[in-house]
Amino acid sequence: MRDQISTERGPKPNVLLITADQWRGDCLSSVGHACVRTPNVDALAKEGTLFRRHYAGAAPCSPARATLYTGLYQMNHRVCRNGSPLDRRFDNLALAARRAGYDPTLFGYTDTAPDPRDRDANDPHLTTYEGVLPGFTARQLLPEHERQWLSWLRSRGHKEAVSRNIHIPVGAASGEISDAAPAYSREETQTAFLTGEFIRWMDEQDAPWFAHISFLRPHPPFSVPEPFNRMFRPGEGPVFSRAADCKTEQQSHPYLAYAMPRAGKGSFIHGAKGPLGEWNAADFDAIRSIYYGMIAEVDDQLGRIWQALKDASEWNNTIIVFTSDHAEMAGDHWTLGKGGYFDGSYHIPLVIRDPGAASAGGTVQNFTSAADVFPTLCDRLGIRPANSIDGCSLTSFLDGKDQAWREEAFWEFDFRDIAYGEGEQHFGLRSNELNLAVIRDEQFKYVHFTALPALLFDLVNDPMELHNLADDPAYASVRLSYAERLLSLRARHLDQTLAYTELTEKGPVTYRP
Predict the structure, then answer these.
(1) How far, in Å, CA of 471 to CA of 469, rounded?
(2) Is 35 a catalytic site residue?
(3) Confidence of residue 6 (pLDDT cuts 50, 70, 90)
(4) Is 100:374 a contact under the CB 8 Å cutoff?
(5) CB 270 within 8 Å of CB 168
(6) DSSP state, 327?
(7) pLDDT at residue 11, as a whole number
(8) End-to-end CA distance of the chain
(9) In terms of DSSP H, where are the helices of 125-203?
(10) Is-contact 186 303, C-beta < 8 A?
(11) Strands (E), 13-148
(12) What's the pTM?
C-alpha cells in the first residue's frame, strides 16, 4: 500500500464512488433530520463538501444511473425505464477512467441494459436490464436476485438462505410488516458482504485504483437486522408530506390516479400481496421506521470502509464520492418507491471528499445534479468526456470558490410501457407522450407533462406540494415564465457533440464550452 499524503492536486489519486440505492437526501443528521443519525456520512462531510440541494436526473434505477454514469440528462441518454438500452456511443465514467489509466472495478451492480444492436438475438444479456456499464471490470456482482450474497450466507451456516425469503423477519408471516430482525446479522447483510469484498480487493492493489461500490440498501424489501430494526420508532421523524387521505391524493392529478393504484405491496415488503393503497397511516409509519434503520445499517458499513482506508494509509490518497441513484417516497403522498414528480423521489445525498481540494467541511446550497458527478471526476483526473454532456464540474465548490451556476433543479420521468402498453392504453396516448419534466427553484416548481395537465406549486407557501396553481389565473404569468425556462433549458441541452464542430477550409474547428 502507498503511504504518501496528497496535499495538493497532482499525485494520481484513488477514486471510490459509492452509491446507496434509494437514499433520501434529507435522511442525514448533517442536514438536520429529526431522528436519523448518520455519523459516518457526517464524518466524510466534515472533511469534504456536502451538497444539500442535489437531485437525481431521472427515475427509476436504470434512467437515474444512466445520468449519473454518463453526465447526460434523460432527454439525451434516452434510458427511459428499466430495460431501456444505453446507447453504446455514449462515454461514461468507467470508460473515462480507463483513459486515465485505471482499471475501474465494480462491486454490486449498475443496472445497465446493453445496446442490442450489435448482439445476437440469443445473447442472454438481452434478457435483463441488470447488465454492467461498459468499461467496468466486475469483481463482485450483486444484482437484485442476490444469489451471490445468498451463497455467501450459506457458506456461513445459513442453510435456509436459498431465496429472498431470507428477508422475512424471524417469526413474521410472509408479507407482514414487522420490525423483527431477519435471520442474518449486521455482519451478514448485503452491505457487509460487498464491503468485505471491497476491502479484500483493496488490500491486493499496489497502484492507484478506481472502484465503484453500488450498495443495494436502503432499497426494499424493508427488513434489517439488529440493532437497526428497532433503532427508530413509528411516528419518529418529520411530518409526512401528503393529502388528508390516499383517495384525495389520487384525485389530484390524472398521473397519480393511474400510478398509485398500480403500486403493489410486494415491491416493499417481501411476500406481500395487493395494492399499496390498502396500507394505512400506521403501516406507512412502521415501514418508514424500518427504512431509517436500513439507512443506519449502510452508514455503519461506511464507517468500516473509512477505517479500512485509514488502516491501509490510503485515506489521504482517495477521492470519495458518496451519493444515491434516486430517493424514496417513504410514505410521502401515500406512496413508497420512486417515480413521478415529487421531490421525495429525486432529492438525494451527495458528499465529495477530495484530499487534493483546497477546502474542506463546506456546504453547498446551489442546485446540483447527478449529471455533475461524471464531469467532476473527469476534471479531477485531467481528462475530457468523449462527447457533449449536460453536467458541470463541481471542483470549484470543492475548493470553496463561488462560481456562476444554475438557479434551478431539473429532472425527468418517463412512464411509457413498451412491453405491455398499459400506460398507453390507459391514457390513449403514444409512448413518446408519456413523460414529464420538472424545473424547480427555491420558490416555485413547474411540472410539464407532454400530454397531461401541468402542475405548478408554490414551494414557499406549500412545501408539501399539495395545491396545484397551474390553472389559477393569478399565477398565469408564473406558469408561463417557468414553462419558458424549461423550454430554454431543454434547448440549451440538446446534444451538442457535433453541433460544436464546424468544417472550414482550414479543417474542423471545435468549440470547447
Answers:
(1) 6
(2) no
(3) very low
(4) no
(5) yes
(6) -
(7) 76
(8) 39
(9) 147-155, 190-202
(10) no
(11) 14-20, 49-55, 105-108, 137-141
(12) 0.96
Please name the residue that has the C-alpha cell 503511504. Answer: 3
Burial 286-300 (b: 16+ CB within 10 A, else e): bbbbbbbbbbbbbbb
- The 3-state DSSP class for residue 507 equals strand
Q: Grid coordinates representing 439?
A: 424545473
- The per-residue pLDDT for 1 is 41
Q: CA angle, corner 370, sides to 291 and 209, nearest 5? A: 90
Residue 471: partners with Cβ closer than 8 Å, 6 or more residues away: 453
Q: What separation in angstroms does the CA of 412 have from each of 47, 83, 370, 489?
A: 32, 17, 12, 12
List the domains of the chain with CATH numbers: 14-437 (3.40.720.10)
| Cβ neighbours of residue 428 closer than 8 Å, sequence gap 6 or more | none
Which residues in 416-513 belong to E strands, given as ranges? 435-440, 444-449, 455-458, 501-504, 507-510
Output the pLDDT for position 2. Answer: 41
Structural contact between residues 14 and 313, judged by C-beta atoms closer than 8 angstroms:
no
HSE of 360 in the Cβ direction (CA atoms, 13 Å)? 16
Question: From the candidates 27, 35, 61, 80, which is the catalytic residue?
Answer: 61
Q: DSSP secondary-structure letter at 315?
A: G
